[in-house]
C-alpha cells in the first residue's frame, strides 16, 4: 500500500514537471510568432490554465505585455504589466520586478508621463546596478 502511494506521488510530480516544461516550450514557440495579436490571444489562453506556477504566469504576463507594446496597445500593455508587477512583488521575484519596471518605463514614456517613466526606469536601473556590482565583486 505504501509503495503504491509513493509511486503515485512520484508519477504525479513527474507529470507536473513535464507540464512545466511544455508550458515554457509553448511560450517560447508562441513568442516567435510575427503576428503579435496571435501571440496575445494564445498567451491569454495559456493564462487560463489554473495549474501554472507563479513564475510561469509571470513569464507569460511579461511576454504578453511586450507583445501589447509591439501592437502599440499601451492601455492593455499597462494593465498586463501592472498585473505582472503585483505578482512579482507578492512572490518576491526581484529580477522580474526590475523587468516590469523597465516595461512600465516604456509604457509611461509613450504615454507622455515622463516623470513616471523616469521613476520606473530608475527603479529598474537601481536593481541592475546593484546586482551587476555584487556579481563582479
Automatic annotation (TrEMBL):
PROSITE patterns: TPR. Transmembrane segments: none annotated. The keyword Signal applies. TPR repeats lie at residues 98-131. It comes from the Bacteria. Coiled coil: none annotated. Residues 1-20 form the signal peptide. Keywords: Signal, TPR repeat. The keyword Zinc-finger does not apply. This is Tetratricopeptide repeat protein.
Amino acid at each position: 500500500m505504501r509503495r503504491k502511494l509513493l509511486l503515485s506521488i512520484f508519477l504525479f510530480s513527474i507529470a507536473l514537471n513535464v507540464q512545466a516544461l511544455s508550458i515554457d516550450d509553448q511560450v517560447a514557440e508562441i513568442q516567435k510568432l510575427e503576428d503579435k495579436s496571435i501571440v496575445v490571444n494564445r498567451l491569454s489562453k495559456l493564462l487560463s490554465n489554473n495549474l501554472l506556477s507563479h513564475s510561469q504566469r509571470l513569464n507569460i504576463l511579461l511576454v504578453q505585455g511586450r507583445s501589447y507594446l509591439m501592437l502599440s496597445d499601451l492601455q492593455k500593455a499597462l494593465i498586463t504589466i501592472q498585473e505582472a508587477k503585483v505578482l512579482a512583488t507578492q512572490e518576491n521575484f526581484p529580477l522580474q520586478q526590475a523587468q516590469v519596471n523597465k516595461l512600465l518605463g516604456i509604457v509611461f514614456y509613450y504615454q507622455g508621463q515622463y516623470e513616471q517613466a523616469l521613476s520606473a526606469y530608475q527603479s529598474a536601473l537601481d536593481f541592475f546596478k546593484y546586482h551587476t556590482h555584487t556579481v563582479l565583486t
